[in-house]
Each structure stands twice: as structure tokens, then as C-alpha cells.
Amino acid sequence: MFDNLSDKLDKALHVLKGHGQITEVNVAETLKEVRRALVDADVNYKIAKEFTSTVKEKALGQDVLSSLKPGQLMVKLVKDELVKLMGGEVAGINLSGDPSIILMSGLQGSGKTTFSGKLANFLKTKKTKKPLLVACDVYRPAAIDQLHVVGDQIGVEVFSDREEKNPVAISEKALAYAKENGHNVVIIDTAGRLAVDEAMMTEISNIHNAIQPQETLFVVDSMTGQDAVNTAKAFNDVLNFDGVILTKLDGDTRGGAAISIKSVVNKPIKFIGTGEKMEAIDVFYPERMADRILGMGDVVSLVERAQDQYDEEEARKLQKKIAKNQFGFDDFLKQIQQVKKMGNMKDLVGMIPGAGKMMKDIDIDDDAFKHIEAIIHSMTPEERTQPSVINASRKKRIGKGSGTSVTQVNQLLKQFDQMSKMMKMMQGGGGKRMMQMMKG
Ligand code: GDP
């Protein structure tokens, strides 16, 4: 996420690191580079210019904290300004109303349908709501199918009416259905077009007027940079929406939309989409995002994601298994699946302070687990619980079955063996023993 921008800002801010104090000259030099980095990231020129002049004023003015070195001070000032630009505070969504009605708007391909599913899943699991998804795209039958697929995937009911060609009528029927069936949140996915056009705007504003949603959200692909900002403006002029959803941040190396959209439409970014999976949704925290942009990592989000996946019951079972020496490949597989649910690897690494910068040139393969999973899937149940039975001919068979080599199978067995030993040691009051081992 935002690798290019982080890199350039880092270089720009580095200039001051060797200086003993802030001067007009070194501040101007640094900020010129900061401005260039922002413009390259597709931040609107005017915003970039205002940004750097505010930082300059603060750096040279009253706000200077003498205890900070110039480099640190500038990082702090830039960070504070970034946070402000992205909205400062976290903006929640309004779930008042019974049912609460959430209307999705945006261009075709922006990620509306995917996000509708993610949000339904989020509300269901985090806020114990009972959402209903509504398919209002009357032009593309495939869009209705897509929403049904998403609904099935997350176990959320989808309302559609393939006979009805009026989206206002569909939404109204859906609301009546929601009330009858105890759905307390209704998420309406609407039709988008490839570009802003009048027919689409009229249609969405008709739906908006008829159903009076508590939340109207505008979904936009963050990779489209300034276009995203312009589209946001067009939708906001018609809908006066409540918040922005930035999708596909996982593929956005520049970050221009994330940084400038709030100040152009004066509406907060509420959620971000960071992948195609239903779990790839995050509340937008301006401060955490600024930290990530400046390569300071985002440990808080990382820990939260880990907690989301943490199942106490499972953890207890696992402990027992380790104690009884029964930890097998099936348990290992479960662990891998939990890690994978947390998001793509590159994204996760980017949340570790400093690591994003260090690892940016290393290609982190999201399929890193694929081989491991394939190998385990090719094992028999007996082999999974009792890996010691895996002899040479079994290794050959497993290699063949999983499309890997015997060397790869051996590698995994060795890693697994080491891991099992380590676990045993940690368990059996072996902390001391391990310390001794490490001391050599
Ligand atoms: P819609 O036409 O606005 O409903 O857009 P879709 O929900 O069909 O999304 C268009 C494409 O973008 C699909 O292939 C999605 O899988 C993909 N997509 C949506 N959100 C994200 C995201 O946050 N990250 C990535 N990488 N892909 C996404």
C-alpha cells in the first residue's frame, strides 16, 4: 500500500536528518521534495501546495518543539498535517433507524457489490446485526447473481426481484420485506455505469429520495487517483453522501485519493477495502494511515486483525494437543488458514514499523502457503497425525500428489519437526531449558 509515496517522503524527510537545526533554507528544500512526492502520488496540486505551506509555517513558527531534532520535527509536522487532511477523527456509520438503511453509490467496477458484502459481514460479526442485502441493478442480471454469490458466501440473505425493472420499487419492497423478517440493517447495492452520466445520477437520486437512507456511501477505486476525487465530487453534488469507501487500497502504490478526497468533498472516508476477500475491510483511521504512509507501520491494526481471527476455544484445544504431543499437520493447516484470513502478506508486513521499507523490494509471495497446503492435502489422515510414518516412498507419493518435489516435502517435514520440538519445550516448563539452549 502506498509504497511509492512512502519511499519518496522518506527520501525527502531524510534531507533534514543530518542538520542540527531548522532553517528557512533546509525547510524549503525538504518541503519542495515533499510537495513533489505528493503531486507524484496524484494529490491535487493545490492541496499539496497548501499542505507544504502549512507545514512550513509551523516548522518556522511558534510550534517548534525544541526537544525534537529537525528530522523528527518535520516527520511529526508532516504526519499531523496528513492526519488532518485525511479527516482527523474516525468517522463511524449511522446505524439508527429500524431498519437502518445504507445506500451504496459509485461507478461500475468500483467495488460496490464486493463492499456491500464486506459491510454486511462486518456488521453481522462485529455488531451482531441481521443485515439484508438488496440487488438494485436492473440492467445487469449478472450483477444480481454476483450479489447472491456474495450473500451465500457470508451467510446473509439477499433480496432481489428479477421481474421488477424499477429500482425504487425494488428498494421499497425490500424495506417491507426487511421489516417483516426482522432485518435491522438493509444494504442497497445500486447499478453503476462506466462513467458519470445523467441517467445514473437521476436513478440513484430517485432511490435516495424515496427511501431516505441513514447512510449514503460513495464507493470508489483508490487506484484511480484524481479521477476518484472528481467522481466523488460529481456524486456528492447530487447525493450529498455521508461518507466515502475507498476500495482496492491493496493495489494502490500512490495514495492520492486517500489523501485528497476528504478535503475536496468534505466528507470522511469511513472504510477501506484491502483485497477481494470478504474479510478485507478496515475502518479508516486517519492517524494509522498517516503512520503507514510515513513508514511507521500500524501495529494497532495488525494486533486487531490478529485478535479478530483469535478463537479462544480453538486456542485452548491447541494447547491441550501440544501438551499431549498430538499437534499434527491438520492443526498446522488450521493455523495457516488463520494467518491467511488476516490479509495479504505484503499488506501485513507493511503494518510492522520499519519492515515495509526494508522488505519493499522483496517479492512477498501470497502463495507462499500454497505449496505447504498442497503437501498437507496430499497426506493421508494417518500421515497427518503421525508424521513419523512418512518414509521415502510416501514422500514420493506426496510430492507427486501435490505437484511439489521430494525436497520440498522433506523441507516441510523438517520445519514441522523443529516446530513441534520447540512447542514441546515451551510447554513443559521448558522456558528455562530453552534459555539454556540459546545461551549455547
Ligand atoms: P461493482 O461493479 O462496483 O459492484 O464492483 P465489484 O464489487 O464487482 O468489484 C469489481 C472488481 O474489483 C471485482 O473483481 C472485485 O473482486 C474487485 N475488488 C473489489 N474490492 C476490492 C479490493 O478492496 N481490493 C482488490 N484487490 N480488489 C477488489
From TrEMBL:
What PROSITE patterns does the database record attribute to this sequence?
SRP54 (PS00300)
Query: A GO CC term?
Result: signal recognition particle
Q: Which reaction does it catalyse?
A: GTP + H2O = GDP + phosphate + H(+)
Q: Which InterPro entries match?
A: AAA+_ATPase, P-loop_NTPase, Signal_recog_part_SRP54_M_sf, Signal_recog_particl_SRP54_hlx, Signal_recog_particle_SRP54_M, SRP, SRP54, SRP54_GTPase_dom
Which Gene Ontology BP annotations are present?
Answer: SRP-dependent cotranslational protein targeting to membrane
Swiss-Prot/TrEMBL keywords:
Cytoplasm, GTP-binding, Hydrolase, Nucleotide-binding, Ribonucleoprotein, RNA-binding, Signal recognition particle
**What's the EC number here?**
3.6.5.4
Query: What terms describe the molecular function in GO for this protein?
Result: 7S RNA binding; GTP binding; GTPase activity
Keyword Plastid among UniProt keywords: no
| Keyword set includes Ribonucleoprotein | yes
Primary enzyme class: hydrolase
**Stretches assigned to the SRP54-type proteins GTP-binding domain:** 268-281
> What does the function comment of this entry state?
Involved in targeting and insertion of nascent membrane proteins into the cytoplasmic membrane. Binds to the hydrophobic signal sequence of the ribosome-nascent chain (RNC) as it emerges from the ribosomes. The SRP-RNC complex is then targeted to the cytoplasmic membrane where it interacts with the SRP receptor FtsY.
Q: How does it assemble?
A: Part of the signal recognition particle protein translocation system, which is composed of SRP and FtsY.
Family, according to the entry, reads as follows:
Belongs to the GTP-binding SRP family. SRP54 subfamily.
This chain's protein is named: Signal recognition particle protein
Taxonomic source organism: Mesonia algae
